[in-house]
């Protein structure tokens, strides 16, 4: 399997709701497994073979890593932990939990996601300032969908 195809496969599995995936081709097997949260680690060892496959040249990987890092927005992203309906306020006539520009503390409620008639409070994992709110009140959200950017 080509290195580019391997990266596409990893991204596809990561973006899906699969938690376990196995693939075998020409005596090489790949087993991908993910937990609730996916952690991506970028290191300085791009020439280390992955599961016996030849990796791309260090210059190619470093250029791709730098390009991807520069296109990502600054700050930390709070993502939806479940599929449901996003609510910015505790009730229809109440003020939103937070607005762009508000200072927030770790553990502070940012919003609610309703799933199966249960109201799930979405708390900040970070201290900082709300730089961006990606969803509208009443909008349906997917698992892992970005909700807020905190800087």
TrEMBL record:
Q: Which UniProt keywords apply?
A: Biotin, Fatty acid biosynthesis, Fatty acid metabolism, Ligase, Lipid biosynthesis, Lipid metabolism
Please report the stretch or stretches of sequence annotated as the Lipoyl-binding domain: 75-151
Q: In which pathway does it act?
A: Lipid metabolism; fatty acid biosynthesis
Q: Which GO terms describe its molecular function?
A: acetyl-CoA carboxylase activity
A Pfam family found in this protein is Biotin_lipoyl
The yes or no answer to whether the keyword Iron is present is no
Classify the source by domain of life: Bacteria
PROSITE patterns cross-referenced by the UniProt entry? BIOTIN, BIOTINYL_LIPOYL
User: Key word Lipid biosynthesis present in the record?
Assistant: yes
Q: What does this protein do?
A: This protein is a component of the acetyl coenzyme A carboxylase complex; first, biotin carboxylase catalyzes the carboxylation of the carrier protein and then the transcarboxylase transfers the carboxyl group to form malonyl-CoA.
Annotated protein name in UniProt: Biotin carboxyl carrier protein of acetyl-CoA carboxylase
What is the source species?
Answer: Blautia intestinihominis
